[in-house]
Amino acid sequence: MPDSPHETLIIGGGIAGLVLALEIAERRPVTLLQPSREALGASRWAQGGIAAVLSPDDDVEAHVADTLVAGDGLCDEAAVRFTVEQGPAAIEWLLSLGVPFTPDPDPEARYPYHLTREGGHGARRIIHADDATGRAVVETLRQHVERHPAIRLRTDLTAIGLIADVAGHCRGARCLDENGGLVELMAADTVLATGGASGLFRHTTSPDPACGEGMLMAAELGAELMNLEFQQFHPTCLFDPDGPPFLISEAVRGEGGLLLDADGRRFMPEVDPRAELAPRDVVARAIDAEMQRSGRDHVWLDVRHLGEDAIRHHFPTIHAYCASRGIDIAREPIPVVPAAHYSCGGVSTDLEGATTVPRLHAVGEVAGTGLHGANRMASNSLLECLAFARSCARRLRDASAPGDAPLTSWQPGTSPVPDAECQALLSEVRTIMSESVAIVRHDAGLAAAEERLAELAERLAPCIAEARPSVPLARLWHALRLARLTVASARARRESRGLHFNPDCPLHGDPAPQPSRLYLSDLTPASH
């Protein structure tokens, strides 16, 4: 049975979803689907901070220029400029809500809050809450959401698909409750804030990464996807085979951390004049190359020279976590390895978050806004969440109600697919992607990945129509098809650019490159 209609449905409760809910709820009622407090999406794990032009010594043009350089010729300059210009007001809004950003203790400081510097940035412009910015922002926003009378927070539902009418407009989402029961949430407008697709890979920086579920749900309604081949691998994830993933923030290198090989020698100065502060794609590939040269499964990140007081002051969370894993970062270097971190592509949107499907919007990492181009610059992601969630809210505050139109039919099957089988197949997808579609790709590997993923789709497709809906099955089916689209995007780009590096086509191609654009219909019939 459909649930009662809701004006605005937001799927995803990270920073983008929480900001949007707060900004729109004064005008329209909101239902927000959010994971449990223990999960809270990738936003919670963001350590470094938010990039914004805040210091009198910085300016918008410099931030725009740095972003365009990092994006390697593929940024949408209008999106870059729009995002950067929204930064100061967005930070002031967060401060007004009580986000505990770290003050600058220097009485001569030109800005009251401490600003750090990260890779690709030519100035100190990263405002942060110690080294746990994402957690501080999420917890502050959630407190306001929980108190707002016009926001209905649902932590008991998981969206598995979107609802369309016969005109092709989005009308809400199909969800499963905690007992596997189907719940249909109808909405005048639906917003995806579901995160990226780093969960397509075996090693990630998040304990429970998204697998691109929102991207594929949008694609099922006919939405355009863009730039899926540009998956960012964070250069420095803690190498800890016995523990959960843990990110070692870009800010550690921003404050002077040095990358060392097995002999204790710095290798980044030989790779790039910016050394450890080069953009993430450059650093991740350099680490990958060094690991292959040495035969080691990690390199080292050294902050000992900063001194224990500075380490504890700037990186209390990292210091404490590493200590819990038996590593005293004030006295020994940190073992690190690149891991899947951030999706630079996603569901194509305009500057107000609108997708190519009427009444469907996307904000945050699920969206392809054009800001990041071929490579995301550090700490521009949370800025993007703020800028686009607030602009999307401005659009939706005064949106008219949709016209009446019959819904498309959908009849779920009844045959169960064991959760263990779904998990095993998802693990197989992740292995294929990690082996052939990761930091460095080759033509032969991409071709093999395409064939293996297609075979999995052929095996799984016949039972999908008969299967009883479940969260693991939905996640697998979304991930498998998005993986196939990602490989198709990587094979179609016959050049190495930004995060897409293929030694078989190492040079830039067209000096005015175009975004890659794909639809679910571009795959073979087994994908549908």
UniProtKB/TrEMBL annotation:
Compartment(s): Cytoplasm
Chain intervals for the UniProt region annotation (Disordered): 498-528
EC numbers: 1.4.3.16
SUPFAM superfamilies with a match to the protein in the record: FAD/NAD(P)-binding domain (SSF51905), Succinate dehydrogenase/fumarate reductase flavoprotein C-terminal domain (SSF46977), Succinate dehydrogenase/fumarate reductase flavoprotein, catalytic domain (SSF56425)
InterPro entries listed in its UniProt record: FAD-dep_OxRdtase_2_FAD-bd (IPR003953), FAD/NAD-bd_sf (IPR036188), Fum_R/Succ_DH_flav-like_C_sf (IPR037099), Fum_Rdtase/Succ_DH_flav-like_C (IPR015939), NadB (IPR005288), Succ_DH/fumarate_Rdtase_cat_sf (IPR027477)
Tree of life domain: Bacteria
Chemical reaction(s) catalysed: L-aspartate + O2 = iminosuccinate + H2O2
Residue stretches making up the FAD-dependent oxidoreductase 2 FAD-binding domain: 8-382
Pathway stated in the Swiss-Prot or TrEMBL entry: Cofactor biosynthesis; NAD(+) biosynthesis; iminoaspartate from L-aspartate (oxidase route): step 1/1
Pfam families: FAD_binding_2, Succ_DH_flav_C
Enzyme class: oxidoreductase
Keyword list, A-Z: FAD, Flavoprotein, Oxidoreductase, Pyridine nucleotide biosynthesis
Cofactor(s) of this protein: FAD
Domain Fumarate reductase/succinate dehydrogenase flavoprotein-like C-terminal as annotated: residue spans: 428-508
Family: Belongs to the FAD-dependent oxidoreductase 2 family. NadB subfamily.
Function: Catalyzes the oxidation of L-aspartate to iminoaspartate.
Name of this chain's protein: L-aspartate oxidase
The organism's taxonomic lineage, starting at the top: Bacteria, Pseudomonadati, Pseudomonadota, Gammaproteobacteria, Oceanospirillales
